[in-house]
Amino acid sequence: MYNEEVIKEFQNLQNVGFLENNNAYSKIGNAACGDIMEMTMYINPETEIIEQVAFRTFGCAAAQATSSRATTLVKGKTAKEALELSNKAVVDSLGGLPAQKLHCSVLAEEAIKACIENYYERKNGTEKKEETKYV
Amino acid sequence: MYNEEVIKEFQNLQNVGFLENNNAYSKIGNAACGDIMEMTMYINPETEIIEQVAFRTFGCAAAQATSSRATTLVKGKTAKEALELSNKAVVDSLGGLPAQKLHCSVLAEEAIKACIENYYERKNGTEKKEETKYV
Amino acid sequence: MKVYLDHSATTYVDKDVLEGMLPYFTDVFGNGSSQHFYGREALKAIDEARDKVAKALNCKSTEIYFTSGGSESDNMAIKGYALAHKDKGNHIITSKIEHPAVLESCRKLEKMGFEVTYLDVDNEGFVDPKAVEAAITDKTILITIMLANNEIGTIEPIKEIAQIAKAHHIAIHTDAVQAIGNIPVDVQDLGVDMLALSGHKFYGPKGIGVLYKKNGVKIERFLDGGEQERNLRASTLNTPGIVGIGYAIEKAVKDLDKNAKHMAEVRDYFVKKVQDSLEYIMYNGPKDSSKRLPGNSDFSFVGIEGEGILFHLDLAGIAVSSGSACSSGSLDPSHVLLAIGVPMAIAHGSIRFSFGKMNTKEEVDYTVDVLVKTVNQLRSMSPIYDELIGEYKKCIMKK
Amino acid sequence: MKVYLDHSATTYVDKDVLEGMLPYFTDVFGNGSSQHFYGREALKAIDEARDKVAKALNCKSTEIYFTSGGSESDNMAIKGYALAHKDKGNHIITSKIEHPAVLESCRKLEKMGFEVTYLDVDNEGFVDPKAVEAAITDKTILITIMLANNEIGTIEPIKEIAQIAKAHHIAIHTDAVQAIGNIPVDVQDLGVDMLALSGHKFYGPKGIGVLYKKNGVKIERFLDGGEQERNLRASTLNTPGIVGIGYAIEKAVKDLDKNAKHMAEVRDYFVKKVQDSLEYIMYNGPKDSSKRLPGNSDFSFVGIEGEGILFHLDLAGIAVSSGSACSSGSLDPSHVLLAIGVPMAIAHGSIRFSFGKMNTKEEVDYTVDVLVKTVNQLRSMSPIYDELIGEYKKCIMKK
Ligand SMILES: Cc1ncc(COP(=O)(O)O)c(C=O)c1O
Ligand SMILES: Cc1ncc(COP(=O)(O)O)c(C=O)c1O
After folding, report:
1. Domain residue ranges of chain D, discontinuous segments joined by +
2. Domain edges within chain B
3. Residue A135 and residue D311: Cβ atoms within 8 Å?
4. Catalytic annotation present for B104
5. Exposed site from B84, C104, C135, D10, fewest CB < 10 Å?
6. Shortest-distance Cα residue to atom 14 of ligand 2
């Protein structure tokens, strides 16, 4: 059901992991629904360019492939540019996903947005710690 | 669904026809139900032996085979003996019939009984002509 | 000599159709719902078959549902639509000459509080579109009329009836089980909402059927369980059957003209020969060949009973049907023949000869030979032949 | 290397079973209801298959009904019995871990005014006969509990439950789709009134199933139409499918001990290897092998999501199932795992490995190698592995 491109991405996931030196963090989703996405970035405070990005996920193959692809698409872009990234662009770049898997691609977009929001919150000192609920 | 014996009887029907010189006649059944049996006999008035018997039928293969067999079974018997002939005996002599065809064998028994009754009625002058309804 | 003239009861699976099915029993055996190689391989074959069926019927692949046969397709369409729309109304219109799969589905709905109008047909089996329109009430939710009759071959004016249904915002289902492979079946052109097919009537496998359901038409699920067939028909997909019906329908449509022409020619040759050789017979169904299935012919032989004829032909290697295969073993004469006005006693002496794409004129010659001998023999031993000739004459005069 | 470990989803048709079926597509192609040579030939094969099934289940041939699969058999039994006995009561008892064919049939009945008790199971999936008895009211007409579960292999105490049903004059149906070929299935010994089978789960064809119904037990017809199957299941008989299921069940019963022993051995070898190689896993289902299907194993791998595992195994040529094949594509974790108390997030990381009669220990070695690598890789990229270990410990303590 997945196309070649998705399978290739899944077999060679990019930017997997956790950046200790992050200045942007997000964790979204719900384990009870089978989807958790965690993202860390290092965004250059001068240029606002996303210099490093990493993700970890508890999610299906589509979630893994789309978050991998999404991270490669935002790496090297500015935070502003990254905010423009739509899940459609990620899916298109992978050559499409089965209909019932499209919702998974939204996770990557949401994680990036939440991550960049977190960067601005931290910068502005407005960050609030929320507990993740997963059961 | 029919056994060999029934098929053989069907292919070599005995006593088919109409006896012009009959002294016993019956016609039973209902064409709307797909079953009509007509029987004629010549019964020796002295000995009461059924010397000749013939049948015609508008009916299925089972009706044909059982009436053929029934006539061979009563031929040469006395009217009294013939009245004892059960449809079971006819069916047994043919080695059995499919369950949904058993009712057809009753026709032969009934035709023989009606025919012999007709013989007695004619003899006693109590015969009444009835019209056959078939539609 | 063996002559099979019962193609309306069932056909054999074409050799190449069977060959196409074979890998799906043993090698590509996965469950089409499984998320792995074996499942995907099966699903691919299923998708391809679905596309073939959709192409043949001129609709979208998402409008094709695989079932276990024509009967299930009829049940699913009729009960499924009625139950999903019972808030809108409780009236259904059908005809007196439908297949039992339709009639019995309607009877089941009657038990549940629905009302059903069983329309009369004329003496050739035609439903009158005006009668359909006249039967419509504000409670009518569904019309179900067959595209072609299985006993007497009548091709119903479904296109006209569908236009009436549409004008009144009523859904229309048609049982096309006997039509496919014999006449064009284009759901757009017909304008129907639902349509039923059965694989074994057009050289495909038994135990597989199709329901076409226009997108947007809501029905309640009939077979409950897993989420197969877009959650409308549970049960593990029958891959070999589905692949088979796909190949069969592709072939049926490709060869339609050739086969129909051939069947009509052989059938017409047969009908003429029978009519030339025997008197006091009724040729049941449409006289106009263009309104009759090309392979169908049906005769009543006055004065004799059908099973006797059938059995004599059978002993001579000729396979035909008295009434429809379904009702054989039952004692009632065909409801279809009664509906077109054949008197009861004459209806009992009826035989359907249904031709297939491979039948020949030589087979016809042999069959007519045996038939004529049989009919004459049985008539000679019929106690009511003369009386039934009278019935026959009255009936002919009425027509 | 290709390894098929999804035999509970479906099996291939055995070569000799297929060979037995082949003549019935093309040569002996008649309609089993037809009154001629072609029909009789087909009927003879059907009768023989019916005898084989009856013999395998230890019942009379007149108690066997052929359907289109396990789902239809369940629908026919449950809805058919309920509708035929609605005057006696409107309460049905089933369990929370039934197959969707049973659960959805029950839900449909609820919509029609019936009441259904969905019994809890213990943490190995067992239905407690005492709970069945406690659930009985004076309105209870039917109990339907599966003989063996398709996900976690639990063999339910049907014999005991049937005794309770009998004592209360309540009918009992059992879904034996997963049981046949794996454990003995004897309807007399079990004491059930109805029992469902599906051909493709024991090396027979897809699209064919069996309903055993004890003589005297009344049900309403589900599939309406012609008078096939003693007027209880319409539609032209699927001769090749019926012949196939006949051969398959004969073989399944003959080879039962050998196959079950082999499967249990390979399965046990697999389970031990997995348990020795990975920590924080849950082996779902009965620990006692004698109460578990010999080919079944089911694991939850804490901290990761099932599809990822399934996909990695698939890329390595290994076919397994996450949850049941039916619910794949859906987002809810298996209702069975939730019913036995697996926490939601952990249930998501579950895989069923179901073994067949031809699987080998070499295949197991390869599978465990790939599995261990996969689980470790996915755990390394899981953001909630550590947290879920906590969940897991709590859950284990509760048990
Ligand atoms: C007109 C018509 N409808 C429905 C059916 C039912 O098809 P099946 O027996 O394959 O379910 C048949 C044939 O039996 C038929 O001729
Ligand atoms: C326990 C159980 N019941 C019923 C079914 C339904 O069988 P089928 O899909 O062949 O209709 C299955 C398998 O899918 C099953 O595992």
Report:
1. 3-9+256-398, 15-254
2. 4-134
3. no
4. yes
5. B84
6. C236
Mutation to probe ligand 1, out of D224, D235, D238, D239 (largest number of atoms < 8 A from CB): D235
**Domain at D3-9+256-398, CATH class:** alpha beta
| Ligand 2-lining residues (CB < 6 angstroms) | C 235-236; D 69-71, 74, 99, 101, 146, 150, 175, 177-178, 198, 200
Pairing state between β C64-67 and C209-213: antiparallel
* pLDDT digits 0-9 by tens, B70-107: 999 999 999 999 999 998 999 999 999 988 888 888 88
- Helix ranges (H only) for D3-146 are 15-21, 23-26, 37-57, 70-84, 100-111, 129-135
The gap between the terminal CA atoms of chain D, to the nearest Å, is 38
Q: What is the CATH number of domain C15-254?
A: 3.40.640.10
Q: Write down the ipTM of this complex.
A: 0.93
Check pLDDT > 50 for residue D39. Answer: yes
Full DSSP string of A90-134:
HHHHTT---GGGHHHHHHHHHHHHHHHHHHHHHHHT---------
Number of helices and strands in chain A (H, E): 5, 3
Number of Cβ within a 10 Å radius of residue D75:
28
Strand pairing report for C296-301 and C350-354: antiparallel
Nearest 5°: the CA angle C205, C36, D373 is 160
CATH tag for A4-134 (out of 3.90.1010.10, 3.40.50.150, 3.40.50.300, 2.60.40.10) = 3.90.1010.10
> In the numeric block, which tokens belong to residue A36?
């958790």
- For residue C67, the cross-strand partners are C209
Specify the ligand 2 atom closest to the Cα of D101.
4
pLDDT in tens, chain A (135 residues): 789 999 999 999 999 999 999 999 999 988 878 889 999 999 999 999 999 999 999 988 899 999 999 999 999 999 999 999 998 999 999 999 988 888 888 889 999 999 999 999 999 988 766 544 333
- Kindly report, residue by residue over D320-365, the tens digit of the pLDDT: 998 644 344 446 789 999 999 999 889 999 999 999 999 999 999 9
